[in-house]
Amino acid sequence: MNSTLTPTIRIQAADFDTAAEIAALSRGRTDIGAVVSFSGICRGGETQALTLEHYPGMAEAEIGRHAEQALSRWPLTGLTIIHRVGRIVPGEAIVLVVTASAHRQAAFHAAEFLMDYLKANAPFWKHEETAQGTTWVEAQERDDDAAARWSKTWHAP
């Protein structure tokens, strides 16, 4: 457990630069042997846009709680989570998770754990625009199943 590491958590409307975020997390560090990043991007197809909403304060606290879980499960040396809100069109980034550790396995597992949580349980609401109109995006059972597997074991499955 790394109780001294303070994760970077941001919820913002503006886009982000993945390479710049990775560089900021790892610049000048000699304790990092692996950096894993996941970028979630708005898909096209029928989707013309997504509008993401959140409850300010609550969303950051809830994401922070899961970040602390990741820090207690894996020996991370860096952690950044950025989630966008507002209107996002296909091809634009929605979310970024960057994990760093001395070894790759911890970084991979922590990133996967956090993405499973963000996809299934983070307090965001998505409104999808299509040619047929707009609808709220409902939770998917497969996302719930992916997140639930982390409660079955303390360490990576």
Helix percentage range: 25-40%
The CATH class turns out to be: Alpha Beta
Structural category is alpha+beta
The third-level CATH topology is Aldehyde Oxidoreductase, domain 3
What is the residue-mean pLDDT, rounded to a whole number? Answer: 88
Termini separation (Å)? 18 Å
Helices, by number, come to 4
Number of domains: 1
- The arrangement of helices and strands along the chain is EHEEHEEEHEEH
What is the fold's blueprint, element by element?
Elements: E1 8-12, H1 18-26, E2 34-41, E3 49-54, H2 58-73, E4 76-84, E5 86-88, E6 93-101, H3 104-120, E7 124-130, E8 133-136, H4 141-152
Parallel strand pairs: 1-4
Antiparallel strand pairs: 2-6, 3-5, 3-7, 4-6, 7-8
Describe, in plain words, how this protein is organized in 3D.
There is one protein chain. By secondary structure, the protein is α+β, with helices and mostly antiparallel strands. The chain has one domain (8-152): Molybdopterin biosynthesis MoaE subunit (Aldehyde Oxidoreductase, domain 3). It contains four helices and eight strands. It has helices at 18-26, 58-73, 104-120, 141-152, and strands spanning 8-12, 34-41, 49-54, 76-84, 86-88, 93-101, 124-130, 133-136. A four-stranded mixed β-sheet has the order 1-4-6-2, sandwiched between helices. Strands 5-3-7-8 form a four-stranded antiparallel β-sheet, with no helix packed on it. Strand 7 and strand 8 (133-136) form a beta hairpin. It is globular. The two termini are 18 Å apart.
